[in-house]
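[Automated response] Your request has been received and processed.

Submitted sequence:
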Amino acid sequence: MTYSGRVTVGGPADVHELKDLMITKVAVGPMDNNAYLLRCRATDEQLLIDAANDAKTLLGTIGDDGIASVVTTHRHGDHWQALAEVVAATGARTHAGREDAEGIPVPTDVPVDDGDTIRVGRVELTARHLVGHTPGSIALVYDDPHGHPHVFTGDCLFPGGVGNTHKDPKAFARLIHDVETKIFDVLPDETWVYPGHGDDTTLGAERPHLPEWHARGW
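Generated structure:
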């Protein structure tokens, strides 16, 4: 079946099958959070992005093979409610942005800085530090050698705008600057965007609206 990126809490996961990587998207919790399970097709090693909520659903999605790592995109509580239980069940190493690690109650094994590489099997993801939604938010970029890039943006980029900066002009200015310079300016329109909530999008769909986002200030 064709991947749509549309999932609902309590509904089935959606699977994006790439040549080297399988991406399983599932929605969990009262804030409709997205969690993403990445599986290297060469080694079967798995990595989870955001153990957001509902450990039972996440562990069922992970299955018997477990996960080697879990990456928390930022420190807001709706993105780590199930982290302790998932780590206890799997023994996974934890990754989070260095500036957000202290705000996550589960210890961070690997503090992540801009440009760091996080691996799942033979697949490499590049971390991009995006400031504004939180001090240490990170996005993960997978530059697929067989196709277009894929980027997991947490709460920093959604269909229709950047993440919430709580009406703080300085925070908005920093976030849109980082999203433009580290995401839009260096990745092509075909780049698939996997956000922390809601449907997926592409950079090409969002790029024409950047001037509107600047003008409205959110």
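Summary generated for your ticket: The chain is about 20% helix and 30% strand. The helical segments are 55-62, 83-90, 169-184, 203-206, 210-216.
If you did not submit this request, please reply to this message.
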